[in-house]
Amino acid sequence: MDWKELLGFIGGALTTVGFVPQVWRLFKLRSAHEISLPFTIFFILGIAFWLSYGILLDQPPIVIWNAVTLVLGCAMLYAKLRYGR
User: Fold this and answer.
1) CA distance 53 to 71
2) pTM, whole model, 2 decimals?
3) Is residue 33 part of a domain?
4) Is 72 within the bounds of a domain?
5) pLDDT of 41-60, one tens digit each?
6) What is the per-residue burial (b if ≥16 Cβ within 10 Å, else e) of 42-72?
7) Does the residue 59 lie in any domain?
8) How many structural domains comprise the chain?
């Protein structure tokens, strides 16, 4: 692994792990009123495009971290639909 790929793994890890507390909080409080539905949908779509981009370029850091973030985004959408009303 070269330094560029390591940089990608570290950057992806930090941004993905930074997202975990927000998703955890949604389920812990069972409240998603403060989360915007359009934001969540656009976020998931953006991550899906980044994941596709990483797959096409065969870039493991992009693929791995965007796959994890896509799961977190879907969990956030689920929480928004279940607890956001």
Assistant:
1) 17
2) 0.91
3) no
4) yes
5) 999 999 999 999 999 999 99
6) ebbeebbebbeebeeeeeebbbbbbbbbbeb
7) yes
8) 1
